[in-house]
């Protein structure tokens, strides 16, 4: 007996719609079909923008009280359905069920934070008397919404990274059109379901599923879209930045984050932080630890314990509570990583553990002796591979850490406060973490990178700054 494939609809122009042409969403673990979503056309994208114009007017008129209530009600809906949300993330994506449950919790935090920030979005009075003759004026500035935000999101945190755009957009009175990753579109649709249930006026939020290469240009180049908020890879981000024209852009891109371990560090603590940072979410994490610079005196102890911990990783069925690492998002990603490791080995690198692929699975892999210039350290691997280097001084570690085109976050393990401050000042990144790896974020902090890691900052309050403009009001007395 043939079982019908489940169809999931998209939210376009205030209606839940399907389309004859669809995208098949598969479970990367075994390639089984999870569902289909509509394949939005260029016409659909244009229609989304036209209806978002109405949505922007409706959204701007919602009182702060109404925005907060709607968001809180949506959070309650997610709480009531949290296992379904987690199962969706763990089916369409490559996270384990444990990681998926944690992401649902993070999403609820992000949305709650958005509701709270709505009440804190206030301006300031301006002391006009600072200019000679200006003391007969009184005034202030306040924030008003940009209008229409186009949000383009990646596969690796398919719910919370969408919440990081949708929550702030609604809290600041905008209309938002989300174009989620084609590999993991259903989690974004579930977020829209929660807000729809909570009474968000239709047309304020749209989620259109479709191929980024086909409908992306419409969203990015259309003059009515006032902010393109993108999270994804460097190449896509750069292409979008070139096309966007005169509008705001926010770019949350990738990295190949460094960790520095000095001789006074608690080595076992550093090992555990770096192992979790390197292999969490199969290394498909923009903050993931990719390069570790270890002072000579503790190098052997660090490497020995790191390899032992990596070998303990339970890789397998992502739906099992015991599993620590599932498959990559697609077999072709695992093949790409295999090639990067093979290339590094051909250049002289040594595999200390891992280096094996089975379909979409790639074992936690530790390399040493990777020569400078090898792609595996220059580029973002976005997989469970980490390279460890012996260094003579903190200066050398900082120089090597900075010698790439990325700069999202970095970690340094030391008890020496002077050295910690040197690293804080000299590391070219958006965030430095002392005594932990690069892989730590709370959703309220300014989050983003320098160089090829992006432009601007997310973290609800900071995203809301991007999603608003300041208007000055003056009264001449
Ligand atoms: P990606 O390939 O760049 O895709 C991201 C999104 O862009 C998808 O929705 C994709 O749609 C869309 N897209 C593709 N081509 C486009 C075009 N020409 N115009 C407009 N949109 C287009 O990234 P990914 O592989 O999904 O995600 C992994 C990357 O995201 C990594 O580099 C990671 O570091 C980065 N990331 C950064 C952060 C951060 O906060 N800094 C967080 C998470 C992830 P389709 O899926 O339809 O192709």
From TrEMBL:
Pfam families associated with the record: Aldedh
Name this protein carries in UniProt: 3-sulfolactaldehyde dehydrogenase
Record field: catalytic activity: (2S)-3-sulfolactaldehyde + NAD(+) + H2O = (2S)-3-sulfolactate + NADH + 2 H(+)
Transmembrane segments: none
Protein function: Part of the sulfo-TAL (or sulfo-SFT) pathway, a D-sulfoquinovose degradation pathway that produces sulfolactate (SL). Catalyzes the oxidation of 3-sulfolactaldehyde (SLA) to sulfolactate (SL).
Gene3D superfamilies: Aldehyde Dehydrogenase, Chain A, domain 1, Aldehyde Dehydrogenase, Chain A, domain 2
EC number(s) reported in the record: 1.2.1.97
Domain of life: Bacteria
Domain Aldehyde dehydrogenase: residue ranges: 16-473
Signal peptide: none
Keywords linked to the UniProt accession: Oxidoreductase
GO molecular function terms noted in the UniProt entry: lactaldehyde dehydrogenase (NAD+) activity
Family classification: Belongs to the aldehyde dehydrogenase family.
């Amino acid at each position: 007996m043939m079982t019908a494939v489940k169809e999931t609809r998209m939210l376009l122009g205030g209606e839940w719609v399907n389309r004859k042409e669809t995208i098949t969403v598969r479970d990367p673990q075994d390639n089984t079909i999870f569902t289909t979503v509509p394949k939005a056309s260029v016409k659909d994208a244009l229609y989304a923008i036209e209806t978002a114009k109405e949505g922007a007017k409706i959204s701007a008129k919602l009182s702060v009280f109404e925005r907060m209530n709607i968001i809180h009600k949506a959070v309650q809906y997610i709480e009531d359905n949290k296992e379904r949300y987690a199962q969706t993330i763990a089916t369409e994506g490559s996270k384990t069920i444990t990681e998926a449950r944690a992401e649902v919790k993070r999403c609820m935090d992000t949305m709650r934070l958005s509701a709270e920030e709505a009440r804190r979005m206030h301006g300031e009075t301006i002391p006009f008397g600072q200019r000679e003759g200006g003391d007969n004026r009184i005034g202030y500035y306040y924030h008003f919404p940009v209008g229409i935000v186009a949000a383009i999101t990646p596969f690796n945190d398919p719910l919370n990274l969408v919440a990081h755009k949708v929550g702030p957009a609604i809290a600041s009175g905008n209309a938002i059109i989300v174009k989620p990753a084609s590999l993991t579109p259903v989690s974004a649709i579930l977020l829209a379901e929660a807000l729809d249930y909570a009474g968000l006026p239709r047309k304020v939020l749209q989620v259109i599923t479709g191929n980024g290469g086909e409908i992306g240009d419409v969203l990015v180049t259309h003059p009515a879209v006032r902010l393109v908020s993108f999270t994804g890879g460097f190449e896509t981000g750069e292409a979008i930045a070139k096309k966007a024209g005169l509008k705001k852009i926010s770019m949350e891109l990738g990295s190949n984050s460094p960790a520095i371990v000095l001789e006074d560090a608690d080595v076992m603590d550093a090992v555990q932080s770096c192992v979790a940072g390197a292999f969490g979410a199969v290394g498909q994490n923009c903050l993931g630890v990719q390069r570790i610079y270890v002072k000579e005196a503790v190098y052997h102890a660090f490497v020995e314990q790191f390899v032992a911990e990596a070998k303990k990783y339970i890789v397998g069925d992502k739906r099992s509570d015991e599993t620590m690492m599932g498959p990559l998002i697609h077999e072709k990603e695992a093949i790409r990583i295999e090639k990067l490791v093979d290339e590094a080995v051909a250049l002289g690198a040594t595999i200390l553990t891992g280096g094996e692929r089975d379909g979409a699975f790639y074992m936690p892999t530790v390399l040493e002796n990777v020569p400078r210039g090898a792609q595996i350290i220059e580029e973002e691997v976005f997989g469970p591979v980490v390279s460890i280097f012996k260094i003579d001084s903190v200066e050398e570690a900082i120089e090597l850490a900075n010698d790439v085109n990325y700069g999202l976050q970095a970690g340094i393990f030391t008890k020496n406060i002077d050295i910690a401050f040197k690293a804080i000042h000299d590391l070219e990144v958006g965030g430095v973490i002392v005594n932990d790896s690069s892989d730590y974020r709370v959703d309220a902090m300014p989050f983003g990178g320098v160089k090829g890691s992006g432009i601007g900052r997310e973290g609800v309050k900071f995203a809301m700054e991007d999603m608003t403009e300041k208007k000055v009001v003056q009264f001449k007395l």
